[in-house]
Amino acid sequence: MLLTVATTHEPATDLGYLLVKHPDRVHEFDVPTGTTYVCFPEATPQRCTAALVLEVDPARLGAGVRRGQPDGFTLGRFVNDRPYAASSLLAVALNRAFRSAMRGDYRERPTEPDGSLRKLRELAATAIPLTVRIPALRCRGGAGLASRLLEPLGWHVQASPVPLDPTRPEWGESRYLDLTLTGTLRLADALNQLYVLLPVFDDAKHYWVSPDEVEKLVRAGGGWLAGHPERGLITRRYLAHSRALAADASQRLDALYTAESIADPDTVEGPAAATDEDAELPAAAQRVPLAEQRRHAVLAELHQTGAARVLDLGCGSGALLVDLVRDKALTEIVGVDISPQALAMAERRLKLDRAPERVRARVSLLQSALTYADDRLVGFDAAVLMEVVEHIDPPRLPALAAAVFGHARPSTVLVTTPNVEYNVRYEGLTAMRHHDHRFEWSRAEFAAWCTQVADRYGYAVRVTGVGEADPDLGYPTQLATFSRSAS
Question: Which of 17, 116, 173, 203 could cross-link with 140 by S-S, CB 3.0 to 4.6 Å?
Answer without folding.
Answer: 203
